Amino acid sequence: MIWMLLLLGPGEISPLAESLRNRVENALANGIYDCGDEQLMHGSHLTDFYMTHDFEPRWMEIDQPKDKFHQLIDCLKKASDHGLDPNDYHVHQLSSFLEAFAKGPSARLAVDMELLASDAFLSYASHLVSGSVDPKTLDPEWHIERSEQDPRMLLQQLEGNLSRLFEGLAPQSPQYRRLQKALKLWQSRQVEGHWDQLESGPIIKPGGKHPQVALIKRRFAVTPETENYDEPLISIIKDFQKRHYLEADGKIGDQTRAVLNLTPAMKVAQIKANLERWRWLPRTFAETHIDINIAGFDLKVIDRNETVLAMDVIVGRPFRQTPVFTATMRYLVLSPYWHVPPMLANQDKLPDFKQDPQKLIDLGFRVFDGWGVHATELDPMSINWKAMKTSMPYRLRQDPGPQNALGQVKFMFPNEYNVYLHDTPARELFKKAQRGLSSGCIRVSEPMRLAQYLLQDQPEWTPERIDSVIAARQETTITLTRPIQVLLLYWTVLVQDEEVYFLQDLYGRDQILIESLKKVTSQIEDQP
User: Fold this and answer.
1) 409-463: pLDDT as tens digits
2) What DSSP string describes 447-476?
3) Would you state the torsion angle of the CA atoms of residues 436, 442, 445, 446, taken in this order, to the nearest 10 degrees?
């Protein structure tokens, strides 16, 4: 073998490279990209790669695999650590080829192993970088571009430890790493056997008695397993409800039963779905940003990976979903007018006007004959509202004041979805555990705290001055000297203080994603 390599002249290629060239050219001619019984997932890209790199093998010698080949198989077997399926990356076929090659090396088998290893590398690397499914094919409300990196570039420089290379491609967020640990925990619980299901029934109140209580006590290893709903089970259920974002009242109704019925396998699938969402995201965000979890109904201001401000929020109803996107908050408005969007005017306000125009007048609504600056204000009592069917030809505006739907302040990050943060006069809604109650915008529970944080480097805007503007009911725009990035994301599993929180899937997005992840193997196509 050595003497053959020494005889190679300038521009000549090795026997293995020659065999690789023949295979690649045949594949290019007939359009068939396979190795043994395996279909190559990135066949056209591999053809292009090897043709532009002089058919130089990356994984194989003519008589033995390189060390990187063995490293690759070890890494692929650990794909499950990321919630990915090793079977999607030719693991069994590569191992089978390796055994066959040890018994009888051949150029054909070496080329099979070379191409299949490169194909597995490209698939695994691209899935760690960008996810295994495209979010835009699943969710019309996802508007963040996926993280992008061409894994073919990595094939040129397979130096160093391959495991570290793959780990560097995955998200580096602490939350992603915590989700990986949670995945292992719940995967271990999958093998614990039968998971008893609770049938629908009456609400079981603390201090009550019901046959299901004994089953629930068995679930949480509470003894004795009696039918009496007493301590410590009451405290355990309240904590359970809190960790699943339910009303933590200790009452066992059908909603709590439904969550108790979630098996470890279901929770494993939910964690995998959230790991996949992390892989869709860009790898870096602004050092200081506002992070809103739509499914968790919460807002956090993050500064250098630390939460410096947190509060509850209200998000869009399931039929008026808050979209997933990022934007930059540039200004806020004190004592804002609410210019009612046409859709809300027609669907929400027109029925009220038909019933009682005076009611809306009392709430500070005014009617104009258009949207321009020269639009004329109309007398609502002079309009025949009942004659209108599904739409009105007018603009509605609600004046600043205590009844204004936007409250005392709105926070603007211009975007095409007309979504922003704002105050609300309906403070009682923040007491609810499930807060998908708005028309798409985000209502914040502590708007003045948020405003003061955003204006902390603008000392002229003291709390007293802010209060005076609000009291005067004078709409006032304040441009932020430090604009801040806003992230509207969707997480249904969180890990905080070593506790795993499973949230309600407000918009029903988890199951769609879970089913798509199951189909990855049969639906993989060449990536652009």
Assistant:
1) 999 999 999 999 999 999 999 999 899 999 999 999 999 999 999 999 999 999 9
2) HHHHHHHHTTT-TTS-HHHHHHHHHHT--E
3) 170
Give me the residue label for tokens 């007493």. 230
Q: How far apart are CA 110 and CA 19, in angstroms?
A: 9
Q: How confident is the model at residue 11 (pLDDT cuts 50, 70, 90)?
A: low
What is the reported pLDDT for 1? 37
Q: Across the chain, how many H-helices and E-strands are there?
A: 21, 17
Q: Which of 240, 239, 212 is nearest to 228 (CA)?
A: 212
Q: Alpha helices of 382-519 — where are they, by DSSP H? A: 447-454, 463-472, 510-518
- 344-346-348-350 Cα dihedral, nearest 10 degrees: 140
Torsion of CA 284, 144, 513, 316, to 10 degrees: 110
Distant-in-sequence, close-in-space partners of 152: CB < 8 Å, separation ≥ 6: 45, 49, 122
Q: Specify the pLDDT at position 528.
A: 35
pLDDT at position 192, please?
Answer: 66
Contacts of 415 (CB under 8 A, 6+ apart): 325, 327
- What confidence score (pLDDT) does residue 66 get? 93
Radius of gyration of the chain (CA): 30
CA distance 439 to 119: 46
Residue 238: alpha-carbon gap to chain centroid: 27
Indicate the SS3 state at residue 477.
strand
Query: pTM higher than 0.70, yes or no?
Result: yes
**Among 59, 64, 50, which residue's Cα sits nearest to residue 90?**
59
